[in-house]
Amino acid sequence: MCCESARQGLRKLWVLHKLSRGHKSELVYPKGKVHEFFTVDRIKELGACSCRKHGCCFHISKAQPPKTFTDEIALQIRNHFTSALALLVSFDIGLTSLIFELIEKGFSDERLTENPLTEQEVYSLLSTTSGHEGPDTLDVIKFYRRQHQFFIPQLVYKSPHLKINSSQSLPFTVEAEIGRGAYSTVYSATLLHEYHDFLDVHVKDGRIAVKTYHDWSAAGGDCIKERTNNEFWGSHEYIMPLQVSLEHRDIFMTIWPLAKHDLRKFLQDDPPEEYSDNPKKAWERFTNLLSALNHIHSSNPNLYGYHFDIKPHNILVRFNGDWAITDLGLAYSKLNDSGVSETSRQGGNERYRGPEVLAHRNYDVWAMGCIGCEIIVWLNKGADGVEQFRKDRMLEEGITTLDNFHHNERLKQPVIDFFREIENHNDDLTRKVAAILREMLEIDPCKRLNARVAEERFGKILGMPPPAENVPRRPSLQNESLSPLRVCLKSFQVRI
Description:
Blueprint: H1 3-11, E1 15-17, E2 26-28, H2 31-37, H3 40-47, H4 71-80, H5 82-90, H6 98-105, H7 109-114, H8 119-127, H9 137-146, E3 162-164, E4 172-180, E5 184-191, E6 207-213, H10 219-233, E7 244-248, E8 251-257, E9 261-262, H11 263-266, H12 273-276, H13 279-298, E10 303-306, E11 315-317, E12 323-325, E13 332-335, H14 363-393, E14 395-396, E15 399-400, H15 413-423, H16 428-440, H17 451-462, H18 484-490
Parallel strand pairs: 3-7
Antiparallel strand pairs: 1-2, 4-5, 5-6, 6-8, 7-8, 9-11, 10-13, 11-12, 14-15
Keywords: ATP-binding, Kinase, Nucleotide-binding, Serine/threonine-protein kinase, Transferase
Domain Protein kinase: 172-462
InterPro entries: Kinase-like_dom_sf, MAPK, Prot_kinase_dom, Protein_kinase_ATP_BS
């Protein structure tokens, strides 16, 4: 094989991928294809190329005979320098003899992936073959840029936060925007399969979600906080597991398994047969969410935990049908040594926010109770029923209000009417579910069911196994007293 035939073979290996919407597609050479192409025999044949047109026969020192690709060197190149060799071959002035310079300097594929050559290093490398006049500046720039088509960073599951060279391409292709919030945007993407070690149970067929943080003043903090919170709470089966966080070209991002869609979108269509024929399945998956919520609240016996942004948008429907909690960006914890779980922190969504002035550790349970009510409506009246229920909640005492579930320290009348209607429902399971949801929507958070009790109650009526004992129990919420601050603020409560 001469260098020109190798160059022609390389041209068949490249793929185009897009880093994000609005960016042009970038040319890359996947290392798996390159390694498969350059067998030991082909490397030896390439080393024997005497093509003066591309400088293949050039050797570093005229006082020494040209170096040849022995079996040992060919094997060394294939094991550690395959992409480096491909880079040299692709360069339009050849210079395959430079592979020996890379070997001597220790510029292996692994090293060049982690730390690409600087322009000064490229200049020094090319100087060995350019004579006294030195390498052409355009050649240096061209070589510097082209290396990034071959040395693409590896994404390692739960590795420390990655800061990736801005000149490198990322090992995934962004396809479409699938979600947008106040501080972040989520895209669907496909990984280049040989550039990650994510588990198949998390990432199927290389399909991922890429979340970027676009508040320029706080993006880094938002990204690291979500990563930290997911490391702390993300081990539960029904909490979406963050794969890795990274920073590239001044963009902070986190990588997640791709879900089919979120519960908000799911409730905008009528129930599929899986749920219309068997409503119990929906409540089993709802119970799994309560288990995940209890994990956030109680997995550390020394802390009160809070999600603070439970809403359908942050509940994902996986491709296997399971539901899972995501977006721990607002999650928070505090020591429980005082025995008081209230905090002045506020949650992120008006519709599912509870009536308490100070957020109690049952703040998230209220939100789950609201979602549970919408699921009952969805199962019985379809997507149109959910939308009508939302519109009904916007009218209270003749005035237009938010579409939340409470007003003036009581449930809104449409919510009360909803529970009264369910009392006469012909399905025993629906009546029992509604009774639990009603206790999850107690105005007084101290009387509200906590996540573990709600999970136990649902599990009992569904015939599910009791919650695992590895999540510590805490004292009953009904025994938790009001903090002095809450007693003071209660008389000044803002009325919506």
